[in-house]
Write a structure and sequence with these properties.
Layout lengths: L3 E4 L3 H13 L3 E6 L7 H5 L2 E4 L6 H5 L2 H11 L3 E3 L9 H10 L2 E2 L4 H8 L1 H10 L14 H8 L6 E9 L2 E6 L5 H16 L4 E5 L5 E9 L5 E13 L2 E7 L6 H18 L3 E9 L5 E7 L6 H8 L3 H9 L19 E8 L1 E2 L5 E2 L2 E2 L2 E3 L6 E5 L6 E2 L6 E9 L2 H14 L1 E3 L5 H9 L1 H4 L23 H15 L28 H19 L4 E4 L1 H9 L6 H14 L5 E6 L1 H10 L3 H11 L4 E6 L12 H14 L3 E4 L6 H14 L3 E8 L13 H14 L3 E6 L6 H14 L4 E5 L6 H10 L4 E4 L13 H8 L10 H6 L1 H10 L14 H4 L3 H13 L6 H15 L8 H15 L3 H6 L8 H7 L14 H6 L13 H7 L4 H11 L1 H14 L7 H6 L7 E6 L2 E10 L7 E8 L2 E8 L20 E3 L4 E5 L6 E2 L4 E7 L2 E6 L4 E6 ...
Helix pairs in contact: 4-5, 5-6, 8-9, 13-14, 18-31, 19-21, 20-39, 22-23, 22-38, 23-24, 24-25, 25-26, 32-33, 38-39
Length: 1127
């Protein structure tokens, strides 16, 4: 018996041999090159020795002399080749014989015969086996092209010394033959050291069936039945089945007998496989014999209970089949088994092999599951070797059971850090034809949808990558508060259903009845703006959905008397996509669920909806319809210049829903009580209200964006509106000057039906007056809001703690300011202008900006200032301060200065006509020499179709149409990091903290538990390793520290959007075959890339001239690196 076995292989097959040897009491020896020193097989052997030359790892496993010398030196008396590398190389068998070492396999003569596929076909023909037409083997391209003239296409180009699909190409078009021969020859030379290839007739749509042979050295040969290896990709097997399903028993018997006859004919010994193709008529032909163990031998082992590797070792030691307890008469196949090869290949990218470090490795187990692998957590997958990580073999009493187990096992796998083909395998196993056993070699080619049918969500890894990046780079600085807002929530029974509120009243009464109820009710209705306008004015709209959803159920139960909660629209839509990386529609749906009893209100910019420019009416109606269906009950509709014509489409769209309330706002400015007021007089407001009522408003609103509505003006305006119209009046203001509670009281004494307020910690200055002050002021009077002052105050600690979390985004004023009566800057814009001024280095000169704003407003004609008209005035003001000119100097000669785009757009009439008329001659001078206004964006047929499809399709279309840039960035963020909307503000903005367990809710019943263990020092590339815990398992994450300059220059990446760029498809060694200035045709091979023993051509995406080569002629590259630029 063999006493000491050296395995001349690596990874999974070496470990398989070590296990069999261990069971037989044989000492084991591993060999490995320097680059493979961390491979698991080295650790599984009793002894291990480094071989080869550093820098040439594959060559080491192909070095016969060194492998044999190592065996002699360590005292091994046998060498096991496994599969691949030298397993079919007669030189190794001959060298073993010469050194007196047992070669576990057939003799060198047999290896030469089977390895020369042309000779093997002749032997098969002599044994009476049906064979295919083929050419003489050659390394001459011209000789093979000549031979092809006598053959019918399609053909196979096959390496004489080939195996595993390498050195093989299928050619359907004679024009592609030369390039295919050259590529197959190069690949064969690289993989096997022999460039000789031959041509063979291809069988159309065949099944690939192979028969397992076992033969001893005493002339006994038997088969262990067949395997179906038809599911292939690029002639490499992907999934193997045993026994072959739906195979005629007579055909099975003929093939098995032919396999035994062939083995006897050539005097074969040890384990081997005879391979056949079966055509659509059920005719089989011999194609080759593999004189070694096969990757898929495990399925045969599972149905026959025969250890093939142990049998090889015993046969090599001189045992007979009888001594092994094996005979053809007693051999039986029981049940069914299938094997899936888990590889680091990306099916959606042409099965390109991926490289990298395995950061998570969780494997399946249980009944009927077998794993043969050679990797582990932390292992580095290099481009040097085969891409297979682990073989999954599943057994069952029948194929259906085996497939079910395989599905379950694949679902249990978690492999992170590298791409894998698991989603593709899952798609194959889901295919009904596969489950039914209807497979051929074209199975994958005929089902391209399998490549993308499934994809790994990989949510945990994506979220972890985001958190690690924020932890390292701290884009918003360190976490400002250690207090968790949720700890400040009041004691409320969330299990109790929330009481009926305004939402139920609206459903019961309908929009008109709801408006009548509001008008007739003596109590002042209150809208809570904390969810939108308050944080828009104070915190740059940065409050995330998680912060709102945490308190929403408490509001539903503590303050059900609210008229509405304003939670959507305005800047929240844009900021959600642009900065918070949240889908605004998902926020709305979640708030609707959390606040089932209170009306949800949004701010709608007329025809602009939530955008900044007018859109076709179809967009407006689709937006309103989708918003209503998702959760909005009250639409506050306004126009930046109070043009009712621009609001009318939105009003009509809201009325057409039949369920939502159209609250139409007059955007207030000026001072109607001032005798010197020339534009915004009481007559102006009453005329505007006439138009609004005629347009179909359910509720009249006064929208005072800057806090300019003084108590006497409020009393006068509200009294006039109430006496003239039969609609309820809703007043909105900002507390910028500090006394707007008095305005509210004057308004409700004059008959106003509702007012807006924010929770006290989020109130005051550029936000709304405090809810608690409103409730207290109206308490115990006929105007009592019905809200509990205690309940309102109990919610305040939460908002105070939440505001501290958003400290980096604070943009409100430190105190009230009376200067607003002069400059009239709206609340939200006043906050934003301060932030802009600081960014432009003008923070210490803000009074100049305020003065410039007032001057700009004056020369533009005293506009109604609300988004987007306020932006026009603000942009001009910043421009004036930056250019050190006054508004009057600008108005005298605007052509001397750079005029902001928003101002030009205003002058072109893109926002409509201003109430005070156009400022002339300023407008004419500013537009001189400029083109007309931009045409309204037109919709495509696809846009219209998507807008007509309610739900996610329409929501996605609206995002894209309203904010194309932010939507593209949002989708890219989701692609890279997954859905981060469920992260808390502390997690999203500040990352992970040591010593804390971070819970991330993914969906109902699915939660990630994440912790931070350590952050490494940066390496020469500026990369830090963040060691995290995810669900109790260590996970390293590599993050670039953007504050550190890398010492190693980064490779230039190709721009996916640039058609001139040619990128490396995957990591490997690239050889460029063109030079700068060469003319190339579309589809022409311009470079080749080799990785994991696979060679692929890189072709020109278009015809043109090679403008630049970005790499050296032969270079190691990563996937996505720029190779060539074609102009």
């Amino acid at each position: 018996m063999i006493s000491k076995l050296l395995v001349a292989n690596r990874g999974e097959i070496a470990i398989r041999a070590f296990r069999a040897a261990c069971e037989l009491g044989i000492t084991t020896v591993a060999v490995y090159p320097f680059e493979d020193r961390n491979s698991l097989h080295r650790l599984k052997a009793d002894e291990s020795y480094q071989i080869g030359e550093k820098g040439h790892p594959v060559r080491a496993y192909l070095n016969v002399d060194e492998i044999v010398a190592t065996a002699v030196a360590c005292g091994a008396d046998a060498i096991y080749p496994g599969y691949g590398f030298l397993s079919e190389n007669p030189e190794l068998a001959a060298a073993c014989a010469a050194a007196g070492i047992t070669f576990v396999g057939p003799s060198s003569d047999i290896l030469e015969l089977t390895g020369n596929k042309a000779r093997a076909i002749e032997s098969a023909r002599a044994a009476g086996l049906p064979v295919l037409a083929s050419s003489e083997p050659s390394s001459s391209v011209d000789d093979l092209l000549a031979a092809a003239e006598q053959m019918q296409f399609p053909l196979f180009v096959k390496a004489v010394a080939g195996g595993g699909g390498r050195g093989m190409r299928r050619v359907a078009d004679p024009a592609d033959l030369r390039e295919s021969i050259e590529a197959a020859s190069r690949e064969a030379d690289s993989a096997f050291g022999d460039p000789t290839v031959f041509l063979e007739q291809a069988v159309v749509n065949p099944r690939h069936i192979e028969v397992q042979i076992l033969a001893d050295t005493h002339g006994n040969v038997m088969h262990l039945f067949e395997r179906d290896c038809s599911v292939q990709r690029r002639h490499q097997k992907v999934i193997e089945l045993a026994p072959a399903p739906n195979l005629d028993p007579a055909l099975r018997e003929r093939m098995c007998n032919d396999a035994v006859a062939f083995a006897r004919q050539i005097g074969y010994s040890c384990a081997g496989t005879v391979e056949f193709l079966v055509d659509e008529r059920g005719q089989h032909v011999f194609i080759e014999m593999n004189p070694r163990i096969q990757v898929e031998h495990t399925v045969t082992e599972e149905i026959t209970a025969v250890d093939l590797v142990a049998s090889q070792l015993c046969i090599a030691s001189g045992w007979s089949l009888e001594q092994l307890g094996l005979s053809q008469e007693t051999m039986q196949a029981r049940g069914a088994a299938l094997q899936c090869r888990i590889t680091t290949e990306d099916p959606a990218n042409g099965f390109r092999p991926d490289t990298g470090r395995i950061t998570a490795y969780r494997t399946p187990g249980g009944a009927g599951i077998r794993l043969d692998g050679g990797t582990n957590l932390g292992a580095e997958v290099s481009a040097h070797f085969d891409s297979m990580l682990v073989k999954l073999t599943c057994r069952g009493r029948d194929l259906t059971t085996a497939v079910a187990r395989a599905r379950r096992a694949l679902a249990e796998f978690r492999i992170r850090g590298v791409s894998t083909n698991i989603p593709f395998l899952q798609a194959v196993l889901d295919d009904p034809d596969f489950v039914a056993g209807k497979v051929t070699t074209s199975f994958i080619d005929e089902r391209p949808q399998l490549l993308t049918a499934r994809s790994s969500a990989d949510r945990g890894t994506k979220i972890l990558n985001y958190l690690a990046d924020v932890t390292v780079n701290q884009p918003h600085g360190p976490r400002p508060s250690a207090v968790y807002p949720r700890d400040k929530l009041p004691a409320v029974d969330l299990k109790a259903a929330p009481p009926a509120g305004s939402k139920q009243r609206l459903v019961e009464l309908g929009p008109e009845g709801f408006a009548r109820w509001l008008r007739d009710s003596p109590a002042v209705g209150v809208t809570d703006t904390t969810f939108r306008d308050a944080h828009q004015s104070l915190l740059a709209t940065r409050v995330r959905s998680t912060g709102l959803l945490e308190i929403a159920p408490y509001i539903a139960r503590s303050t059900p008397q609210l008229l509405s909660v304003e939670c959507w629209g305005g800047a929240t839509y844009d900021v959600a996509l642009r900065f918070l990386k949240e889908d605004p529609w998902e926020r709305l749906a979640a708030l609707r669920e959390a606040l089932p009893n209170i009306c949800l209100q949004m701010l709608l910019r007329g025809r602009n909806t939530v955008g900044y420019t007018p859109y076709p009416e179809l967009v407006t109606s689709a937006f309103v319809e989708e918003a209503t269906a998702t959760g909005i009950d009250i639409f506050r509709i306004f126009d930046a210049l109070n043009n009712v014509s621009s609001m009318r489409p939105a009003i009509q769209a809201v009325r057409e829903t039949g369920s939502a309330v159209a609250e139409v706002a007059m955007s207030y400015t000026g001072d109607l009580t001032n005798p010197g007021e020339k534009i915004y007089t009481l007559d102006y407001w009453l005329k505007l209200a006439d138009e609004i009522v005629e347009a179909g408003a359910h509720v009249l609103a006064i929208k005072d964006m800057a806090g300019l509505l003084r108590p006497p003006a409020a009393a006068k305006l509200v009294s006039a509106l109430k006496s003239r119209f039969d609609l309820p009046v809703h007043v909105h203001t900002h507390d910028t000057p500090g006394g707007q509670l008095a305005t509210y009281m004057a308004a409700w004494y004059a008959g106003a039906d509702a007012v807006d307020g924010a929770s006290a910690p989020m109130a005051g200055t550029t936000s709304q007056p405090a809810l608690s002050s409103i409730v207290a002021a109206a308490a115990h009077t006929q105007y009592d809001t019905g809200l509990s002052l205690e309940a309102v105050c109990d919610l305040e600690p939460y908002w105070e703690a939440l505001r501290r979390v958003y400290a980096p985004f604070e943009s409100g004023l430190p105190s009230p300011t009376g200067r607003v009566y002069t400059h009239e800057i709206p609340g939200g814009q006043l906050s934003n202008l301060r932030t802009q001024a600081i960014a432009l280095g003008l923070g210490d000169r803000f009074e100049e900006i305020e003065n410039a704003y007032a001057g700009a407003d004056r020369v533009l004609g005293r506009l109604v200032k609300v988004t987007p008209s306020s932006k026009v005035v603000g942009d001009l003001a910043l421009s004036l301060v930056g250019a050190h000119v006054t508004a009057d100097e600008f108005a005298a000669d605007p052509a001397r200065y750079d005029i902001p785009d928003s101002v030009i757009g205003f002058f072109r009439g893109e926002l409509g006509d201003p109430p005070g008329g156009w400022p002339e001659p300023l407008r004419t001078k500013a537009l001189e020499g400029r083109g007309p206004a931009r045409p309204e964006q037109q919709l495509t047929e696809e846009d219209e179709a998507q807008l007509a499809t309610p739900g996610p399709v329409r929501q996605g279309a609206l995002n894209r149409l309203l904010f194309p840039g932010p939507t593209k960035e949002f989708l890219a963020h989701r692609e890279e990091f997954g859905d981060t909307s469920r992260l808390s503000a502390n997690q999203f903005f500040y990352g992970l903290r040591r010593g804390e367990e971070h819970r991330v809710h993914l969906e109902k019943g699915v939660e990630l538990l994440i912790g931070l263990e350590a952050v490494s020092e940066p390496d020469e590339r500026g990369m830090r390793t963040v060691l995290c815990l995810i669900n109790g398992q260590l996970r390293p994450v590599l993050v670039r520290d953007r504050a550190i300059a890398a010492d190693v220059p980064a490779a230039e990446k190709a721009d996916r959007q640039n058609p001139d760029h040619v990128a490396a498809p995957f990591a490997g060694v690239v050889t460029v075959g063109v030079a700068v200035g060469d003319q190339v045709d579309a589809g022409q091979t311009i470079a080749t890339i080799e990785a994991m023993k696979m060679e692929a051509a890189i072709t020109a995406p278009k015809a043109g001239t090679v403008a630049r080569i970005a790499v050296t002629p032969t270079a190691g590259v990563e996937g996505g690196d720029l190779l060539v630029v074609i102009s």
